[in-house]
Every structure is written in structure tokens, then in C-alpha cells.
Task: structure prediction
Amino acid sequence: MATDCEGCRSGKPLDFDFSMAFQPIFDIAASRVWGYEALIRGTAGEGAYAILSKVSDEQRYRFDQACRVKALELAARLFPRGQNTRLSINFLPNAVYEPAACLRATLIAARRHDFPLESLMFEFTENEEIVDTGHLQNILTEYRRQGFITALDDFGAGYAGLTLLADFQPDLIKLDMKLIRGIEVSRPRQIIVATIATAARELGIQVLAEGVETEDEFTVLKAAGITLFQGYWFAKPAFEALPPIDMSVRATHRADRSRVA
Result:
């Protein structure tokens, strides 16, 4: 039986190699690493653009599949066992030919490496407008049927906005860093983020703040009720490794809780 979809079989083979870096997602409510996002890198640690710029239209299906397999292989080797650490993988909905068929290689890789499906999170982001909303809905339905977590990346930027959220309710939304940057001195940003957080809770959706770089940003976001964080203030991505979390983050959170108590 074929392990890939028609889009992969008819596409152009990849003529380059790549690897991954990992950046932690920290849960301040549980004071632990919630998961790691897999980020594309060159084999010598080059940035994502160095690889993405090589991907032709005829290779996008194969590249999407190869990214999933590579992320799973590395995560299975690096992640601590038995701690329900999530692996977050990015994908473009337009690079999914047919949801069930395009998952075959992912499922095979997960079984091969004994990686739990419920620990997989797929982030979808659209730099281009989603025209076929039915296709995206089919993808989310199939991913949830498999037990995956679904996430809307870059929320608040480009086409990843309120209309998309009204049409599709993922398990998690990631606030774009442009909304977060300078939030400690921007009342409009504070109001917008607090409103999004409230709406998400009403919809049963978790909120993750990405691109957090300062303690002031963290403090404002935490006050809005956000508990999942990702950004340089916690840890920078590490090439083919899991970076340590800045212990001062945990200390700050513990101190805050002791004052409240």
C-alpha cells in the first residue's frame, strides 16, 4: 500500500536536505514545559528561509511530509519519555492534498518511533487567503479524529484573524508577536489581547503567546489570563536539541503565587 498521497507521488523529489531546531512552550500554571515547536533549519543550522526558498511548487507536498517525519524522528530521540510533551509541527493547508492520505507517512513515523498521537499538535497558518474553506474543515476534522491537537498560528496577523476563528475553532490559538511587542505600553494592545483571551475561553480554546521577549510583556499577558508562553525570554530555539528554560521565569511565577497566597 502506498504511504503517500497523489500530490507527493506526482511531485518533484526533494533535492536538498534539512533539519530542525526546537523551541519550548512553557506552561506557567503547571510550571513545566508543555511542548516544543519544531522549526525548519538547514543541516548546518541555517535559518528557515535558507531552506524554504529552495522549495518549488512541485515539491511542496513532499516537503510537507518530509518535515513531519523529520520532526517526529528528532523528537522521539530528544523528548523525555512519559511526560506527555507535545510536539508542534507547522503546515500549510494548501500543502495537504487529501487529509487522510497525507497523514499516512506521519502515522507510520509515529508508530515506528512509539510517539503518542495525542502529543502531536499541528499549527496551520495562511500567508495566503484560504479560498477553499471546506478543504480546511476536512483537514481539521480528520486531524481531530486521529487525536491530534490543532492550532491557529500567527493569530492577529495577515489572514489569521477573527473571521477565520469564527469559521474554524481549533484547540489552540497562538497570538502573533506583532500584537505582543510593546504591549506593556500600549493600552489598545492590552485591550485587544484581553478581549481575545476572554473570547477564546468562551469558545473553549487555549491561548498561547508567542514571541515573548521581555518580563514586562510576560507580566501583562499573564494578567490577561494567558498561561502558555513561547519566546526568547524563556528560551531561544536549539538546533537538534532541547534548550533549557530560564529558571528565573519559574522563580518569578512562584514568587507571584506566594504573594497572592
